[in-house]
Write the structure tokens for this entry.
Amino acid sequence: MKSKFVINDHPTILIDGIPLDILLNEIYPDGFLLGLIPTITDWFSMEDERRLVEQVYDMNEEVKIIPVLMCPDDCDLSCTLIVVEVETSNELVNWKRMGRDMNNPRELIEKNMFLESGVEWLDKVPPMIFSKEDYRCIEKIYKYKELE
């Protein structure tokens, strides 16, 4: 789909048929969240940030924090970045909570992970639970390659 600030079609995370940035904007209308795009790794402007996102996403941890939305202006970790705390079980993927990452990107790269301590949690966003089968659609965003 297209988004508010990106005229090209790009992968979009849909929650019950609603783009995630629109859903967040409805909950936090003054949060400047409308127009955020998925953290499409091919779009990252810095190679070390792209590698971090791919590595964290591929980690087999039971609970981890992953980035899901970013500002399309710079496509990096220093602007608006929305992360989720993800808990994975055999059958389900649970987005336990969602927040705005306020960490320094250099620190994230040095520690090779996203940190819970620097997240401003968006308490009005409810947990979201996906079947592993449905979640595979989100996995494709992290493996996105520009359509030829």
